[in-house]
């Protein structure tokens, strides 16, 4: 039986092929993403694998089920892009990757923070033109400043360890304190206190109805004018239009975004020869203190290898009748 994998990046393909070969399974890799137009390709494939930017709503899930698909194995931890209720009604098993290297995302969040703090992109663009002036490149020491970590799970903990190494004061926000973060000296406070005090705010929470626009107009106004804001989690955590409004006022020392709330159909694709009609994203790109990257925080050899290995095991478990903690929607009879 052949497994169909959608949205496979060139760097990812050999890792996927090896993971499936090790488990003696056949896989066909596609560089196109799963959507309503490409769902028909899956006809006759009992199992498919998707990337995080596939939008698996009823319009996509129904033709998959009608074509014989019975399992969707997503290559990510987040699953806010999947309508699990519809999947369950259609008899589709859905699995995700519950865990992969938290260091990949935490280290990249710090990469964004330091890049905007030390004006790395502006400096690199200048020196390519042999312009070696320092005007406008002054950053700030992180030592002695305050890091506000919203979400102190595995990734937030890894970020906190690095912040502790910088010698920063640590503030945290989560439903329950992380004992490791407490040992590192983190003080848990409410959101308003964290935003008002933090020189660096970083987001490491999942996108749920309760966390959508967790950082909205009110929260942005509560932050310091010279704060740094980093989001390497999910784009919908920040109200992008409100962020543009605050940036237009000249606020924030820097903003690093690896995710964007309307990234589907843009990120992971080459749109350089097309007109992009997303005015909010286009406006974000114009601010010299904003750095936008393409949802690449997870993209290390170690993390991707863990993701594809777990995905292959999820599929093997499904085919052999086992259920793991990675299953979001268990097998059910199709309607």
UniProtKB/TrEMBL annotation:
<feature type="domain" description="D-isomer specific 2-hydroxyacid dehydrogenase catalytic">
    <location>
        <begin position="8"/>
        <end position="328"/>
    </location>
</feature>
<dbReference type="InterPro" id="IPR029753">
    <property type="entry name" value="D-isomer_DH_CS"/>
</dbReference>
<keyword id="KW-0520">NAD</keyword>
<feature type="domain" description="D-isomer specific 2-hydroxyacid dehydrogenase NAD-binding">
    <location>
        <begin position="111"/>
        <end position="297"/>
    </location>
</feature>
<dbReference type="Pfam" id="PF00389">
    <property type="entry name" value="2-Hacid_dh"/>
</dbReference>
<dbReference type="Pfam" id="PF02826">
    <property type="entry name" value="2-Hacid_dh_C"/>
</dbReference>
<dbReference type="InterPro" id="IPR006140">
    <property type="entry name" value="D-isomer_DH_NAD-bd"/>
</dbReference>
<comment type="similarity">
    <text>Belongs to the D-isomer specific 2-hydroxyacid dehydrogenase family.</text>
</comment>
<keyword id="KW-0560">Oxidoreductase</keyword>
<dbReference type="GO" id="GO:0008720">
    <property type="term" value="F:D-lactate dehydrogenase (NAD+) activity"/>
</dbReference>
<dbReference type="InterPro" id="IPR006139">
    <property type="entry name" value="D-isomer_2_OHA_DH_cat_dom"/>
</dbReference>
<protein>
    <submittedName>
        <fullName>2-hydroxyacid dehydrogenase</fullName>
        <ecNumber>1.1.1.28</ecNumber>
    </submittedName>
</protein>
<dbReference type="InterPro" id="IPR036291">
    <property type="entry name" value="NAD(P)-bd_dom_sf"/>
</dbReference>
<dbReference type="InterPro" id="IPR058205">
    <property type="entry name" value="D-LDH-like"/>
</dbReference>
């Amino acid at each position: 039986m052949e497994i169909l994998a959608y949205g496979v990046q060139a760097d990812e393909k050999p890792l996927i092929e090896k993971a499936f070969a090790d488990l003696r399974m056949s896989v066909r890799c596609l560089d196109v993403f799963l959507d309503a137009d490409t769902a028909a390709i899956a006809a006759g494939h009992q199992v498919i694998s998707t990337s995080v930017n596939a939008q698996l709503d009823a319009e996509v899930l129904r033709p998959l089920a009608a074509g014989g698909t019975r399992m969707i194995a997503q290559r990510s931890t987040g699953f806010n892009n999947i309508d699990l209720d519809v999947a369950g009604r259609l008899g589709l098993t859905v699995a995700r990757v519950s865990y992969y290297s938290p260091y990949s995302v935490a280290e990249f969040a710090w990469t964004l923070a330091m890049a905007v703090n030390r004006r790395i992109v502006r400096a690199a663009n200048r020196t390519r033109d042999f312009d070696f002036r320092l005007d406008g490149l002054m950053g700030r020491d992180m030592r002695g400043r305050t890091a506000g970590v919203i979400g102190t799970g595995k990734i937030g903990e890894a970020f906190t360890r690095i912040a502790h190494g910088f010698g920063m004061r640590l503030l945290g926000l989560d439903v329950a304190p992380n004992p490791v973060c407490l040992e590192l000296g983190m003080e848990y406070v409410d959101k308003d206190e964290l935003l008002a005090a933090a020189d660096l705010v970083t987001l490491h929470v999942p996108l749920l109805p309760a966390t959508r626009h967790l950082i909205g107009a009110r929260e942005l106004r509560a932050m310091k004018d010279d704060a740094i804001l980093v989001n390497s989690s999910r784009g919908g955590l920040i109200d992008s239009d409100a962020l543009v409004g605050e940036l237009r006022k000249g606020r924030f020392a820097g903003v690093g975004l690896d995710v964007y709330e309307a990234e589907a159909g843009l990120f992971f694709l080459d749109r350089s020869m097309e007109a992009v009609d997303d005015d909010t994203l286009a406006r974000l790109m114009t601010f010299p203190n904003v750095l936008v990257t393409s949802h690449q925080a997870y993209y290390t050899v170690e993390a991707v290898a863990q993701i594809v290995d777990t995905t292959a095991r999820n599929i093997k478990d499904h085919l052999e009748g086992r259920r793991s903690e990675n299953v979001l929607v268990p097998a059910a009879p199709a309607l």
